[in-house]
Design goal:
By secondary structure, this protein is an alpha+beta fold. Helix content is 15%, strand content 38%.
Length: 120
């Protein structure tokens, strides 16, 4: 029985790893644009994104009407397979949540290719 459980856990881990795409951005510091999910045409602010492997920190460098100055989000870059988007996860289970991004209660979505941080 113990062997069977170990085998199941290994298969799930392999399946999850195989379905996660390669991170499309290298470690470093980048400029990201903030955009509102429900009003993407509304002007917003630029952010500093510091990426170290799968760890991301999103920082507003200047006081603004949109966000206060400082760290806006920090977490682990995770692939959310259901929505086919990268998210800023705070718990290992975030990648399996039904709702992410937009105005959901789930983690924020981050477009790593176009360097956009999406919020409500």
């Amino acid at each position: 029985m113990k062997y069977l459980l170990t085998l199941i856990v290994m298969m799930v881990s392999i399946s999850t790893a195989a379905s996660t795409p390669k991170l499309p951005i290298a470690s470093g510091q980048y400029t990201f644009r903030h955009q509102f999910s429900e009003q993407p045409g509304l002007p917003s602010i630029m952010l500093t994104a510091k990426i170290n492997g799968r760890h991301i920190v999103l920082i507003n460098e200047t006081e603004s009407k949109v966000f206060p100055k400082g760290i806006l989000d920090e977490g682990t870059l995770m692939w959310h397979a259901d929505s086919k988007q990268w998210i800023v996860g705070h718990d290992k289970s975030d990648r399996y949540l039904e709702d992410v991004g937009g105005c959901s209660d789930g983690p924020s979505v981050v477009d790593l290719k176009n360097r956009i941080y999406w919020t409500c």
